[in-house]
TrEMBL record, chain A:
<feature type="transmembrane region" description="Helical">
    <location>
        <begin position="202"/>
        <end position="221"/>
    </location>
</feature>
<keyword id="KW-0812">Transmembrane</keyword>
<feature type="transmembrane region" description="Helical">
    <location>
        <begin position="336"/>
        <end position="356"/>
    </location>
</feature>
<feature type="transmembrane region" description="Helical">
    <location>
        <begin position="297"/>
        <end position="316"/>
    </location>
</feature>
<comment type="similarity">
    <text>Belongs to the CcmF/CycK/Ccl1/NrfE/CcsA family.</text>
</comment>
<dbReference type="Pfam" id="PF01578">
    <property type="entry name" value="Cytochrom_C_asm"/>
</dbReference>
<keyword id="KW-0472">Membrane</keyword>
<keyword id="KW-1133">Transmembrane helix</keyword>
<feature type="transmembrane region" description="Helical">
    <location>
        <begin position="233"/>
        <end position="254"/>
    </location>
</feature>
From TrEMBL, chain B:
<dbReference type="InterPro" id="IPR004329">
    <property type="entry name" value="CcmE"/>
</dbReference>
<keyword id="KW-0201">Cytochrome c-type biogenesis</keyword>
<dbReference type="GO" id="GO:0017004">
    <property type="term" value="P:cytochrome complex assembly"/>
</dbReference>
<dbReference type="GO" id="GO:0017003">
    <property type="term" value="P:protein-heme linkage"/>
</dbReference>
<protein>
    <submittedName>
        <fullName>Cytochrome c maturation protein CcmE</fullName>
    </submittedName>
</protein>
<dbReference type="InterPro" id="IPR012340">
    <property type="entry name" value="NA-bd_OB-fold"/>
</dbReference>
<keyword id="KW-0408">Iron</keyword>
<dbReference type="Pfam" id="PF03100">
    <property type="entry name" value="CcmE"/>
</dbReference>
<dbReference type="GO" id="GO:0005886">
    <property type="term" value="C:plasma membrane"/>
</dbReference>
Length: 871, 142
């Protein structure tokens, strides 16, 4: 037992909390009643010191928690419930944030770093901005404080001991210092490289939304209502890019790991991040509008505040347990919903009240925008984003309405839409149309002087090309025997227009020698993503239909969704242009590329170890010799499915996975979870998962053994397979037999002819110290087990016991996802666009914010010299 | 009228349309009694039903019908809702792997003839919640 590390950790949490309090108060006093840039130096020095102490304390907390996980200190609940002895080091990092406390810590950590960044790059704004920062840190740290104040539990400490958590166990009475030998492990679904980088990305995005919020609050407080936009803009750009990439990373993880058949399920947990991202992007546009064209400042304020409040709301939704049945993967309820709600309400009410009290002072643009002002179209675009966010928010919050009505004593029974995907898709589609069209129009108009003639000139080419392209797409879709609905046609048109307009803009700007526009690149990426989503989700095609010609007789005759096929082991089944064969179960062996056939492995009592029954060779290189001990990962079984293209004859194998997962599902030993295997082609993906398998954990039920007396050379039918008893020979040192001197060991060689190949079965008969032992041999492919029961040497007769079992099968679902690569490559372009914008537009604003506000005139001048229309 | 007022009216109209559309799409938690009544009225909208599986003395669920060798896309079971009405449910998909262990089952779908056709099954399983058991803790004390 090591209690010290936990005590240091817990003490550091308390120090971090106290230091955040001092920093918040210190920065407040430094700034209160003084103009921006004329802070009280002594208060500021105190506050800086306190924030520094806060940061160091947070680093110590993280160090302690990581030590607890890394050193397998299972006396701590966190290590016991999130880690285990067999966990590879890289996933210990994911354990860190599997629990609520660790993920709060990750968020706090990013905000500490961002706070240091503000201190370095935004000196003039340091005091008021850091006052808000420290206040938020105070609340976040309180979530992991783990102290009881006046009978109320404040926060949940990650350093709680197992015996403090599971107080009812009888073991503590006998041995209070009991330490479990192993932890219960990280949820195996999260043992994926995306889960190492996706949560930090997402929480960095969360943390980055605090920066513009803190600037906006500071600006309202200090009545510096315009100067904050410039320093806040680059941070917002980084936030938009990071959060956007984080959302798509989560989608990609779901696509690779979960089995709902896609990358986005409109689960409340996904929506909770998607909503603030949309509003963040809208606020970014409003900030740019003010920065470049001196309009939209009120909108910018409102949206920046809204983004941060929505981040808090997302935290409340996913961590308070309010979603209950509505979500598959929200965090468990730690009983902190009250605290979270206070946090959410306090920040929302204070920020909104401050905004309202200053609203009239916020400058507005004197001119009314006309249709020839690109500003108008940017503004409309931001509005479309907000309406889209509102739609998702309104539906996702349905469980909250129920809880709220329950709280005031009214019982309601409203449920989320029965078909959520259809519900969201049909409405979000129109946001996509708006975004694609407006991004193209506004991007073109932004870079030119606009009047009736230039606008018509510059929009004609992309519009005509998009119409032409859409006509072609419709024809191609029809030609392939599919239908396309009117909304899809509109989205195709809008998406193509967005691609062409933005691509044309990039090209024009490069030709003019100006620069690569980050905005145009990001918008091009978004338009490509929309087309990719339309193709891959709208035309996701289930190819595992029952094509055997057999009709199952049931009470329903109409054509129902029969989306799964049954594949017998080693029997080929035709399926939508492919010949499919399930060829066996495989394990992952660390160090060996690919997967290893279970039939090569002899399982031992230690479930993480097996013996090699034959040399394990991949591409000519032998990794294990017969009899070697092999480390395996027993929770994952991979089912090899061989795909053969019926026309071209090309073959590939996919290995969908079934995972024994203790955390999900129920029953003893947890549930069995399927994860897909994906074959990527340039134009589409083939996505396959098992829907049902014979449980690999359960002992197979063998039939009663039937006895057969055979002589060498006899033939026999085993489970309908033809077999020859070829020879009797001395047993080799077979795996797991442990032959000693003086033992007599014989093995039969039985050749069984299966569908694909012949198998040698070697049941062994051992005599040791006048005791007879029998080692059966199993041909897993054929579901046959042989025992050499007795030997009659004088008559030359051998008695075999033959048992059979249920032949192995899988039930499989397979889908085709056309053009899904457009989505991923669009995401990369979007991220690149954000990066370019940060470097070009904002980058210098971070370091050189002292430059006087001349860019308005500068901008006007620059606009004057480039009036040429896009041809 | 100013253009900005027009714009605001347009936004409010879209927001109202969103709310109406969501209200129209939102489903309800009902019992089987109401689900049958809806079907009798010709209302085919899908509903949510929360129920439990009837179990025998060994806590095994009774009345499950799934034979992948006959039809991998046909799973039938009986569900008892909170008002103790039992109903046969058909799910045209493979049986979810952890169905037997689930404490509570939420299904969405609608009545069709004598059976409830479910198109989604949500399982609530005991182990999804905070870990409370320490397996072998009593056995491994030295």
């Amino acid at each position: 037992m090591n209690l010290l590390v936990g005590q240091i950790g817990h003490l550091s949490v308390i120090v971090a909390f106290a230091a955040a309090l001092v920093a918040a108060y210190g920065y407040f006093q430094a700034s209160q009643g003084r103009a921006l840039g004329e802070e009280d130096a002594s208060w500021r020095r105190l506050a800086r010191g306190a924030f520094f102490v806060h940061g160091v304390a947070i680093f110590v907390v993280i160090g302690c928690l990581f030590n607890i996980i890394h050193a397998h200190r299972y006396e701590y609940y966190y290590a016991w419930s999130h880690s285990s002895n067999h966990l590879p080091v890289e996933y210990m990092i994911s354990c860190f944030w599997e629990g609520q406390e660790g993920s709060f810590l990750l968020w706090i950590f990013w905000q500490v770093l961002l706070g240091f960044g503000i201190m370095k790059f935004n000196r003039r704004w340091e005091a008021p901005v850091m006052a808000v920062f420290s206040g938020v840190q105070l609340f976040l740290v309180s979530m992991i404080l783990g102290v009881v104040l006046g009978g109320v539990k404040v926060g949940s400490s990650p350093f709680i001991l197992l015996r403090e958590f599971l107080t009812d166990l009888p073991v503590w009475k006998m041995n209070p210092d009991f330490v479990p030998k192993d932890g219960t492990g990280l949820n195996a679904l999260l043992q994926n490289y995306w889960m190492v980088i996706h949560p930090p990305t997402l929480f960095l995005g969360f943390a980055l939304t605090l920066v513009p919020f803190a600037f906006a609050i500071a600006a309202l407080w200090k009545r510096e209502l315009t100067a904050w936009v410039k320093p806040a803009l680059p941070w917002t750009l980084v936030g938009g890019g990071v959060l956007g990439v984080g959302v798509v990373m989560g989608a990609y993880w779901a696509y690779e790991t979960l089995n709902f058949g896609g990358y986005w399920n409109w689960d409340p947990v996904e929506n909770a991040v998607y909503i603030p991202w949309l509003v963040l992007v809208a606020s970014l546009h409003a900030l740019v509008l003010w920065q470049k064209r001196r309009t939209g400042l009120r909108t910018a304020f409102a949206l920046v505040v809204a983004t941060f409040v929505l981040i808090l709301y997302a935290t409340f939704l996913t961590r308070s347990g309010v979603l209950g049945n509505a979500s598959v993967h929200s965090f468990t309820d730690l009983g902190l919903s009250g605290q979270l709600f206070i946090y959410l309400a306090a920040f929302a009410v204070l920020a909104v009240a401050l905004l309202i009290s200053r609203w009239k002072e916020i400058p507005v643009s004197p001119k009314e925008l006309t249709a020839y002002n690109p500003e108008l179209w940017v503004f409309v675009g931001a509005t479309v984003l907000c309406l889209g966010a509102f739609q998702v928010l309104f539906t996702t919050s349905i469980p909250v309405y129920n809880s709220f009505m329950g709280l005031i004593g009214i019982k309601t029974n409203v449920a989320l839409p029965a078909d959520q995907i259809a519900h969201y898709s049909k409405l979000q589609l129109w946001m996509g149309v708006g975004v694609a069209l407006l991004s193209g129009v506004a991007q073109i108009m932004w870079w030119q002087r606009n009047n009736r003639e230039t606008v018509i000139n510059s929009l004609t080419a992309p519009t005509l090309l998009a119409l032409l392209g859409t006509a072609l797409v419709v024809l191609l879709v029809r030609y392939n025997g599919l239908t396309i609905s009117a909304p899809y046609v509109v989205l195709t048109l809008a998406g193509l227009f967005g691609v062409l307009a933005n691509f044309g803009m990039i090209f024009t700007l490069l030709r003019r020698g100006i620069r690569l526009s980050g905005g145009a690149v990001a918008h091009l990426g978004i338009a490509l993503m929309l087309l990719g989503i339309l193709a891959s989700a709208g035309y996701s095609n289930i190819i595992s239909r029952n094509v055997s010609g057999l009709l199952y007789s049931r009470e329903f005759s109409e054509d129902l969704n029969r989306d799964n096929v049954l594949l017998w082991r080693n029997e080929t089944t035709p399926m939508h242009g492919y010949q499919l064969t399930y060829t066996g179960q495989f394990f992952e062996v660390p160090g060996v590329p690919g997967y290893v056939d279970k039939q090569f492995l002899y399982r031992t009592d230690d479930e993480y170890k097996a013996l090699a029954r034959a040399p394990i060779t991949v591409d000519g290189k032998t990794y294990y010799k017969t009899g070697d001990t092999v480390n395996i990962l027993p929770e994952n079984t991979y089912y090899r499915i061989n795909y053969k293209d019926a026309k071209s004859g090309e073959q590939f194998a996919l290995y969908p996975r079934a995972q024994v997962n203790d955390e999900m599902g129920g029953g003893e030993g947890g549930g069995l979870l399927a994860s897909p295997a994906i074959k990527k082609f340039w134009g589409h993906d083939i996505y396959t998962h098992v829907s049902s398998v014979l449980d690999p954990r359960k002992e197979k039920p063998w039939s009663e053994a039937t006895e057969h007396v055979l002589a060498v050379g006899d033939t026999i039918f085993l489970n309908d397979y033809f077999a020859v008893f070829r020879a009797i020979e001395p047993a080799h040192e077979t795996a797991g037999l442990n032959l000693q001197k003086g033992d007599l060991a014989l093995q039969a060689d039985m050749i069984v002819t299966g569908e694909k190949r012949q198998y040698h079965a070697h049941p062994v008969f051992v005599v040791r110290n006048c005791m007879v032992g029998r080692v059966p041999d199993e041909v897993e492919d054929l579901g046959v087990r042989l025992t050499l029961n007795a030997i009659d040497p004088t008559a030359g007769k051998f008695t075999f016991g033959v048992s059979t079992t249920q032949k192995d099968y899988v039930i499989l679902k397979a889908m085709e996802k056309p053009f899904i690569n457009l989505l991923w490559s669009g995401t990369l372009l979007m991220a690149l666009g954000f990066g370019l914008s940060v470097r070009q537009r904002g980058g210098k604003g971070v370091v050189a914010e002292e430059t006087p506000e001349t860019e308005a005139t500068e901008e006007a001048g620059r606009r004057a010299v480039r009036p040429q229309p896009v041809s | 009228m100013k253009k900005s007022s027009l714009f605001i009216i347009a936004i409010i109209a879209v927001a109202a349309a969103i709310i109406l559309s969501t209200t129209a799409d939102a489903s309800m938690y009902v019992g089987f009694g109401e689900a049958r009544a809806r079907a009798a009225e010709g209302n085919t909208t899908k509903v949510h039903v929360v129920g439990r599986l009837p179990r025998d003395a060994q806590k095994r669920p009774v009345g499950l019908e799934y034979d992948p060798l006959k039809d991998p896309n046909y799973f039938a079971f009986t569900l008892v809702d909170s008002t103790q009405i039992a109903q046969r449910v058909v799910y045209n998909n493979p049986k979810p792997q952890d169905f037997d262990a689930s404490e509570q089952v939420v299904i969405t779908g609608a009545m069709k003839g004598d059976v409830f056709m479910a198109d989604q099954i949500l399982l609530k399983c005991p182990s999804k919640y905070v870990k409370k058991d320490l397996e072998g803790a009593t056995a491994s004390v030295q």
